[in-house]
Structures are given as C-alpha cells and as structure tokens.
Amino acid sequence: MPEPGVNEAIASVLGDASLSRQSKVARLRQLEADALAKQRGGTEGLEPDRPDDGEELRAIERALMSLGETAVDQGPASL
To answer: Which domain of life is it from (predicted)?
Structure first.
C-alpha cells in the first residue's frame, strides 16, 4: 500500500476544481519525483527498504494517465 499521505495528496490534486489540468500535472509530477527519490534512496541504502515504494509510483502513474499524461521511465537505469 502506498503511504496514506500519497493517496490523499493524489485525491486532493485530482479533486481540486480550482486547479487547471496543467497545474494538476505539475503537482503530480512533483509527487512522482519525490516517490522516485525515496525509491532511489532505498536502493542506495539511505532509507530503509520499503517494499511498497512501487505502489506509490503506480498510484501516481494512474493519476497522471487519467489526465492523459505518461509516467517517467522507472526502469533500473533511471534509479
């Protein structure tokens, strides 16, 4: 399961009618960058290994796809 804060943040961004599509995408991209940084920190031994890191990225990716965007490449070379 993704961290509770991630799910709430995604729901808040998607549900905010005052935000333009572009603003929603920008906020989701920041969440995506943060999740990738956490995952990268785990692979470098900076943070404890969290088996659910991928779930956060998948949830953010689904939100981006709902706005017609694609996610960044998350392959091993991107870590």
So the answer is: Bacteria
